[in-house]
């Protein structure tokens, strides 16, 4: 009882004693929704202020870099190049399709490995063992059929 006599309310909130609060919510004053909303938006105002400071920091850094760098455009500096080699001929180059197929197969098996981790956690849960095991083997079967198809077409062979 010493907490109530010293001016703290039900939850130890200073000054909550003698204030008609929101029914069923101890420690919230009568203007509870307004007070809760102001606290809610106050926490977002701190995040907004930090975001604004971050944007201003980046803007000042880019502005300072633009003001301090030397600008001496010459024809050599304006020439497009890649990897230090001057461009000769057209900008179009022929790339074989099989590189895209390799990338596509990599993405498929990367997605497969991502699905294996949640499957393992569900498989460990009681009551889901047999069902998830069958579903995963069906999923792996579809991937195996796709891999066998790519292998049969000769996509995976370095010619």
User: Alpha-carbon distance between the termini?
Assistant: 87 Å
Mean pLDDT: 75
Name the structural class.
mainly alpha
Helix content: 55-70%
Task: Provide a count of the helices.
Answer: 4
The amount of beta strand, in percent, is under 5%
Shape: flat
Largest sheet features: none
The gyration radius over C-alpha positions equals 33 Å
DSSP E strands, number: 0
Describe the structure.
It is a single chain. This protein has 4 helices and no strands. The termini are far apart. The chain is mainly alpha-helical. Helix 3 (98-124) runs antiparallel to helix 4.
Question: Secondary-structure map with pairings?
Answer:
Layout: H1 2-5, H2 32-68, H3 98-124, H4 129-152
Notable characteristics:
single chain, 159 residues, mainly alpha, 58% helix, 0% strand, flat, disordered N terminus
């Amino acid at each position: 009882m010493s907490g109530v006599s010293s001016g703290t309310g039900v939850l130890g909130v200073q000054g909550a004693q003698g204030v008609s609060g929101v029914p069923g919510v101890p420690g919230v004053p009568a203007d509870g929704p307004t007070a809760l909303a102001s606290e809610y938006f106050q926490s977002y105002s701190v995040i907004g202020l930090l975001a604004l400071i971050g944007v201003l920091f980046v803007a000042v850094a880019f502005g300072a870099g633009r003001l301090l760098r030397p600008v001496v455009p010459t024809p050599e500096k304006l020439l497009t190049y890649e990897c230090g080699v001057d461009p000769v001929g057209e900008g179009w180059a022929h790339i074989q399709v099989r590189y895209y197929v390799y990338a596509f197969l990599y993405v498929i098996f990367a997605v497969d490995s991502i699905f294996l981790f949640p499957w393992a956690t569900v498989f460990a849960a009681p009551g889901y063992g047999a069902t998830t095991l069958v579903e995963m083997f069906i999923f792996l079967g579809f991937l195996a059929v796709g891999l066998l198809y790519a292998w049969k077409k000769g996509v995976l062979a370095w010619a």
